[in-house]
Design a protein that fits this description.
The complex is a heterodimer of chains A (about 240) and B (about 290).
Chain A (H helix, E strand, L loop, with lengths): L2 E12 L2 E12 L3 E5 L6 H8 L4 E8 L2 E2 L5 H7 L1 E4 L11 H8 L7 H11 L1 H5 L10 H13 L5 E5 L7 H17 L3 E5 L3 H7 L2 E6 L2 E7 H6 L1 H8 L2
Chain B lengths: L1 H31 L6 H17 L4 H24 L7 H23 L14 E2 L4 E2 H23 L1 H11 L1 H6 L4 H27 L6 H15 L4 H22 L6 H14 L14
């Protein structure tokens, strides 16, 4: 399988300071790749570099297109759906309006997609006229994912979707995600603190430390690595 | 009693104009966190464009519609050329830019049209209606304002572009991730604000007469209305504008000489800032440290 997303020697900058020092990351078409690492390692920055939200150097290729010079809006239009840290829902708008915005770049099929999302996430159908800000944390995260999928993306980029959620909700959310990523035919790049859960779902994994990729391989091989087990899995 | 009601209704007519301009201020403020001090002068300049078109022989309503279109484009251009470069500048720099715009439009109008007061035609006849509570002219002003507000609210409520504009104003980063061109939305916002202002200018000009300083007082009342309603609330801007219009009229009739009416605007502004800084409908901006 050819990768749908390929990062080669990508550096990223906040102002003058370089926070990614040349990372290589790939996401297989139809696969799920997870980025692991401590806080401040550069995981979120990697995602932001992909979506043109920070200045970057190096090569970012998505479905045969170079992304580095494109704006965030254009990258979204190409089919990269990014659910940012903190979910990024429009809290003053209703659930339905949030979903409509997800389908903003599409010429057709948004209505059918919305019905499918209500099927995947029944709670959103029940809350469709409520303001997004009135939803619980878990519901908001599901709304954020559903909104991203409304773009009919080829790549779904998720930044710590489990953040601040109860473990039961996290498991439920990942169960839904694991099911629908095949139905929606979308590849996934995931940043996640819950390493054991993420490694059980993903097929590839990268370990990032202080702006470098320090380990990579199949999710299984990383889950079996004694040092990673000690540092990130805790057993 | 009849006189009181008369004053209330005539206050509603001027309130409708303040409400329009207040709405334009609120739209820009929500989208860019910027108070556009040039809003009044932009409206005045639009009104001069309408006046020119009428002088050239166009029927009033044709000139009206054409002026709205020109004003929309003008607002768009102002955002692109003047506001965009200071988008990420400190807010004070942006405020200075809008004050600069105010002076430019004022001087430009004076230079082109001179400071002589001009008569501006009203499309509405001036007859008493509703048992002499209102004139047809006031009624016309209120009707035009209501139609404009209705169109505007429908635009934001029902169209995809309107929804995208609300999204861009609320959370620009997320809007970009949805593929919304936030810059374009801001430009449309300026265009719409200029159009609303143009309507207000053309409605008020028959009463105030047209000169480059025509909108100075109106802008102050509009500020008072916007603040009273809560600077972040479009509904608040409309309600606030109407309240200010009625209050101004009643105070001018019963309490103080009408030459001192403008103080009402300042008193409202000061009272709101002291007693209820978020206004009637505004929400407090809370930022976690």
């Amino acid at each position: 399988m050819a990768p749908i997303l390929q990062l080669r020697a990508v550096k990223a900058f906040y102002g003058q300071s370089e926070v990614l020092h040349g990372v290589d990351v790939a996401v297989e078409d139809g696969g799920m790749t997870v980025l692991l690492g401590a806080n401040g390692a550069g995981k979120t920055t990697t995602l932001r570099a992909i979506c043109g939200m920070v200045r970057s150097e190096g090569e970012i290729v998505f479905a045969g297109r170079r992304l580095e010079r494109l704006s965030t809006e254009d990258i979204a239009g190409l089919g990269v759906a990014h659910v940012p840290e903190g979910r990024g829902t429009f809290s003053d708008l209703t659930v339905e309006e949030n979903l409509r915005l997800g389908g903003y770049t599409r010429r057709s099929g948004a209505q059918a997609s919305m019905q499918r999302m209500f099927g995947h996430f029944p709670i959103l159908a029940a809350r469709r006229q409520q303001q997004a800000g009135a939803l619980s944390g878990g519901e908001q995260q599901m709304l954020a994912i559903a909104r991203a999928l409304m773009m009919a993306p080829r790549l779904l980029v998720l930044d710590e979707p489990s953040f601040g959620l109860a473990p039961r909700i996290v498991e439920e959310m990942f169960a839904i995600l694991d099911r629908i990523r095949h139905e929606e035919n979308v590849s996934v790049l995931l940043v996640e603190q819950n390493a054991s859960l993420a490694l059980s779902l993903a097929d590839h994994a990268y370990l990032i430390e202080t702006g470098y990729v320090v380990a990579s391989g199949s999710a299984k091989s990383l889950a079996d690595d004694p040092q990673i087990r000690r540092s990130y899995l805790g057993y | 009693m009849h006189q009181f009601l008369q004053q209330v209704f005539s206050g509603l007519a001027s309130g409708a104009i303040y409400a329009s301009l207040a709405l334009a201020l609120v739209m820009i403020y929500r989208a860019t966190d910027l108070v556009n001090f040039a809003q009044g002068e932009m409206a005045m300049f639009s009104t001069y464009i309408a006046w020119t078109l009428v002088q050239a022989g166009l029927p009033f309503w044709a000139a009206f519609v054409l002026t709205l279109a020109i004003s929309f484009l003008g607002g768009l251009v102002i955002e692109r050329v003047v506001i965009r470069p200071v988008e990420n500048a400190p807010v004070l720099a942006a405020v200075i830019v809008t004050i600069g715009l105010l002076l430019i439009f004022n001087s430009l109008a004076g230079w082109i049209y001179s400071y002589t007061v001009q008569d501006f035609p009203s499309p509405f006849p001036d007859r008493p209606v509703l048992g002499a509570l209102m004139t047809t002219r006031d009624l016309g002003v209120v009707a035009v304002t209501l139609v404009m507000l209705l169109l505007l609210f429908s635009f934001f409520r029902f169209t995809t572009t309107g929804l995208a504009m609300r999204a861009a104003a609320q959370n620009p980063a997320s809007a970009r991730l949805c593929g919304i061109r936030v810059g374009r939305m801001l430009a449309i916002g300026w265009g719409l604000a200029a159009t609303i202002g143009a309507t207000a200018g053309m409605m008020v000009a028959p009463v105030l007469f047209l000169d480059p300083n025509m909108m100075g007082g109106v802008l102050l009342y509009a500020f008072a209305g916007a603040l009273l309603g809560g600077i972040t609330s479009p509904v608040g801007a409309v309600v606030g504008g109407l309240i200010v219009g009625v209050t101004e009229n009643l105070v001018g009739t019963y309490l103080i000489a009408s030459q001192l009416k403008l103080t009402v605007a300042f008193i409202v502004i000061i009272l709101v800032l002291v007693v209820r800084p978020n206004g009637l409908f505004g929400t407090a901006v809370v930022r976690r440290m």
